[in-house]
Amino acid sequence: MGCCWSLLCKDDNSSQNGEPNERTHLLVDPISNNIHIQRVSSENLLSRNSNDAPKKTDEQSALTRILQETATNVIDVAAIDSHNLQQQEYIERVKMYNIKINQVLAGNKGALANSLKSCLLEDVPQPEKILSGDLLNREDRHLMTSSLLAAVSAINDIRVDHKEDLVVPFGLGLNS
Amino acid sequence: MDRPNIQGQIGYLTLNSEGAVLASEGDLKNDEKTAGILHGLITLAHNRLDPKAFDKGFKRLTVTYEDHAYVVCLSNRKIHIVKRQVQAT
Amino acid sequence: MENNLDRVMEEICLDPAVLGCLFADQQGLCIGSKGQASNETSGYITAIANQVAKLEPNSKMPVVTLENENQICMIQKADTITGAIYKKL
After folding, report:
1. pLDDT band of A16, cuts 50, 70, 90
2. The model's pTM
3. Which residue of B34, B45, B50 is in closest CB contact with C55?
């Protein structure tokens, strides 16, 4: 028989040296915790301490990995040697940067299009033609306004049609 | 279309798809408030407002007051707004 | 109770060019609809009318129109209701 120990937990659950205590989670969330659960057979219960070592190197290697990633991504401005750009080099760099910018912009066109995903209007090719078209004519405008007024008055007339009493006595006289 | 030139035009606004003002003239010069309101207006709903009734999408939106109107259309992912004088009825 | 409104809507739809009409209350709930106007659009109609009201708070309520090649949707807000009429152009 074996049992499943989770020796590595979130900081608030484990003590400093990682030894399991009464608050140690037996099952760890597999998504949030990428440190793997170690399966320990019952024979190794007594040799618990020997499992601390591999866990410590895991932590160590994770830490080293994070440091390495940060080091490669961080640009240490103070450490850069400042050298004066030659005119030619400057122009070349400007050209290169502009090319990169245009590449990124072209690539992002898909993202930009999303901002008008939900839009009442369709994209049309000739805006001047559309914008200069005839405006709302007098008849249609009058139809809208007068219909709206008629509707307002009709809705104001909505009232409950009192046909029967809501409260009806059952006919059981108090005296009989 | 860079500068719309439409009969009866008393102002115009050109916005990008996010509602930022690209150009403005006349009555609508620097009018970010109108730009914001009209941009918010057209992004309120999807193009097929009532698919049961309308078999095609809308190409133009107009807001007609007594003596003037705002005409809005979308072209090349830019929002074009023109304020036009209307013959008083 | 709503006979009067029904009558008003019928009269609007008598016009052969009218495709349908719809009236919504201040919260966007449909009070009545006739013809091809879907009662599910009432929320959008109210939202559009409320947004347009911000354009010129001191002017009378404008008529908003959404147009495609051959159809038009007219929307106007009154104090307590918003109305929409769909029409063939």
Report:
1. very low
2. 0.65
3. B34
ipTM of the complex: 0.94
More confident residue, C65 or A118: C65
Instruction: Answer whether C36 sits within 8 Å of B52, measured CB to CB.
Output: yes
CB contact under 8 A, B45 and A128: no
Question: Residues of B with CB below 8 A from C68's CB?
Answer: 54, 56-59
Beta-bridged to residue B12, according to DSSP, are B25, B82
Chains in contact with A via at least 3 Cβ–Cβ pairs below 8 Å = B, C
Using an 8 Å CB-CB cutoff, list chain C residues near A144: 63, 74, 76, 83, 85
Cα–Cα distance between C67 and B56 in angstroms, integer? 10
Phi, psi of C28 (to 5 degrees): 90, 10
C67 touches chain B (CB under 8 A): yes
Q: What share of chain B is helix, strand, coil (3-state, %, to 5)?
A: 10, 40, 50
CATH fold of the domain at C2-88:
Beta-Lactamase (3.30.450)
Q: Closest residue of B to C37, CA-based?
A: B53
Average pLDDT for A17-27: 73
Tell me which of A52-66, A146-160, B34-48 is least confident. Answer: A52-66
The helix/strand/coil state of B11 is strand
**Domains of chain B: residue spans and CATH:** 9-85 (3.30.450.30)
- Tens digits of per-residue pLDDT, B24-40? 999 999 999 999 999 99
Rounded distance, CA A143 to CA B17, Å? 34
